[in-house]
Amino acid sequence: xxxxxxxxxxxxxxxxxxxxxxxxxxxxxxxxxxxxxxxxxxxxxxxxxxxxxxxxxxxxxxxxxxxxxxxxxxxxxxxxxxxxxxxxxxxxxxxxxxxxxxxxxxxxxxxxxxxxxxxxxxxxxxxxxxxxxxxxxxxxxxxxxxxxxxxxxxxxxxxxxxxxxxxxxxxxxxxxxxxxxxxxxxxxxxxxxxxxxxxxxxxxxxxxxxxxxxxxxxxxxxxxxxxxxxxxxxxx
Length: 236
What we know:
- By secondary structure, this protein is an alpha/beta fold.
- The protein has helices at about 20-30, 35-45, 60-75, 110-120, 160-165, 180-200, 210-220, 225-235, and strands at about 10-15, 15-20, 50-55, 80, 105, 125, 135, 145-150, 165-170.
- Strand 3, helix 3 and strand 4 (about 80) form a beta-alpha-beta unit.
- The chain is elongated.
């Protein structure tokens, strides 16, 4: 049975033909250096779709970019962004191309997002300081997990508090009560990475088929206009 947490089917419509991931890899080889192909293989080995960051109503686009950059650097393949209609602050992009390699799904509704995450089998943990919150160190991240980070000013929404399976905190020893969202996300994602590395064979847990498909995806994303390239190849 297909794992729905993995976002790709592995079939590509190009030039009027349906191509498999294996075919895409073969056709893209002439356009990628051996070094790029090896880098793709190494990155895919460390990828997981079983932990996803969720950003709810983030005001500063720079913070979104920074979280996505941290997520990509630590091998998280998927992310969810909930946009509730706020006027967002523009900011310089700081992802350094990280979003190019991620699968980001956008939502206009907190409830729709959380219900879909739960349907896919994720436990939904929301960072929020309240009397029911538990330290992040007490959570089991060997389970599929969606970890939610909220608005810079107000935190997560009331809907998210109601929908989350558990609210969590990052323990702090100083006078301030919260980290900047990009810092909180980086700390949390690194903590999860270390916990998964400690308790699982490895952080990256894609199946061999999923690795093949993601290698094909990354091969396509390595080119500015891969469809045009492949259409020319198929005409030969």
